[in-house]
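[job 0412] stage=complex_fold ligand=cytidine-5'-triphosphate status=START
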Amino acid sequence: MKEFLQDKIFQLISEAADEQQQECYVIGGFVRDIFLKRPSKDIDVVVVGSGIELAQRVAEKLGKRANLSIFKNFGTAQVKLKDLEVEFVGARKESYQRESRNPIVEDGTLEDDQNRRDFTINALALCLNKDRFGELVDPFGGVEDLKNFVIRTPLNPDITFSDDPLRMMRGIRFSAQLGFFLETNTFEAIARNKERIEIISKERIADELNKIMMSRKPSVGFILLEKTGLLELIFPEVLALKGAETKDGVGHKDNFYHTLAVLDGLCEHTDNLWLRWSALLHDIGKPRTKRYDPRLGWTFHNHNFVGEKMIPEIFRRMKLPTNEKMKYVQKMVTLHMRPIVLSEEEVTDSAIRRLLFDAGDDIDDLMKLCEADITSKNPDKVKRFKSNFQLVRKKLKEIEEKDRVRNFQPPISGQEIMDTFNLPACSTVGEIKMRIKDAILDGIIPNEYEAAKTYMLEIASEFNLTIS
Ligand code: CTP
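[job 0412] stage=complex_fold status=DONE, emitting C-alpha cells
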C-alpha cells in the first residue's frame, strides 16, 4: 500500500521513527478513507513508545516549516504542516470505569491499541518503518467489512460501547455517512447499552447528530436511532412524531416517516445544515396539536406556531446554538405552510407580497423546504402542487422585481410620524406605521416615500390627528 503514502511527510516520519528505533503506524480514519477514496488531511500516527518524542524528532527535521504542539497531560503531540495535521500518540491499552469516559491508560502494543478502537474499519494500520513501509495490519477483517459495507466493533460490542458510549452514535453516524449497515451484534449491543448515552456530553451528541444531518440520506441515521432506542433518550420530540392513528376508519400519515422523507428530499437540494434542521422540525408541533373531529377528521391546527415555540427549549437542551441560526429555524417552521396554502388558492399579488415580506432573504430556502414537503404518493396531486409552485415562484420573482418588498424598510419612519403630527412616542405611531405597511403589501400604494406620505396624511383623520 506504499502508493497511498506518497506524501513526503510519511517518508520523514519513517526516517525519524527508524532513527529513534520506534515502531510506528498510520491508523484510523486516514487509512479507512484511503479505501473509501475520500481524501483526508487528518493523519493519526500511533507509536509503540512515546508519541511526543517522535513528534519532536519529526518537527526538528521539518524545521521552521512545521508547527509543533505538545499535550503532555494526554501524552499526545501534533505537527502541523500547511494543511496537514499529524497527531502522534503512544500505543495504549485502556480500561474504563463505568461512570466515566476517562480511561485508565497504560502503554501497550499495536494490538492493544487496535483492540481499543471503535470499529474494525477504523482499526486499520499501515506501518511506516522502512523495512515494512506500507504494510497493512488488519487483525479484525476491517478491509473485508469495508468491501461489504459493514460497521462492526473489533471486540465484543458490549465492551466497546460500554467503554465509550459515544461510539453508539458514531456507529449510526458512519452508517448514514457511508451508507453502511450495522452488523447485527453491533446493532443489538447499541439497543442493550443505549442508557449509557447519558454519560456523554450534549455537545458531543449534537456533533454526531449534525454529522448525520449532513449525510446524503439522514433518514438512515434517524431510523437506526429509533430502532435502537437511542432516539427516545436523545430526541423524544422526534420520536413522538411516529405512529399513525385511525378513528372511524380515518387515518393520518405517520409524521416520523413523512418528516424523514421531507428531510431526505430537501438534502438533494441543499447543504445548509440549518435548513436541514428546519425540515427535521417542520412538523414537530403536530403531536401536541393533534385532534380528531368526526366532521373534519384529523387536524393539527397551528402546529407550525406550536412547533416554533418548542424550538428554543429543544435547542437549549441539546446544546445547539441559540442564536440567529435557531431564529432562522423557527422562522422556517412558522412559515412552512404559507407557500403550500398559496399554491392551493388563487395566487394574489397581496399574498405574495406578504410572504416576501415575512420570509425576506430566506424566501428561496423556504420554497425549497415547502417543495420537499410534498411527499404525496398520488402523482396527480404532486403534479398539481408542483405546477402551482412554479406559478408561486414566477409571481415571487415578478413582484419582487416590481415592488422590492423582500427587504422591506418602511418608507416613513416613526420619527417622521411623530414630527408630522406632533405626537409623543405612543401606540398610535405604531398603528399608523402598520397601516402604511399593510397598504404597501396589499398593493394599495407603491413602496415609495411620496405615496406613503400622502397615504399617511389621508388616514390621519381616522386617528383624529392634524398636521402640526
Ligand atoms: N476512535 C475510537 N472511539 C471514539 C473516537 C475515535 O475508537 N469514540 C478512534 C477510531 O479509530 C478513529 C480514530 O480514533 O478512526 C480517530 O477518531 P476521529 O478523528 O474522531 O474520527 P475519524 O474516524 O477520523 O472520523 P471523522 O473524522 O469522520 O470523525
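Residues 379-403 form the longest helix (25 residues).
[job 0412] exit 0
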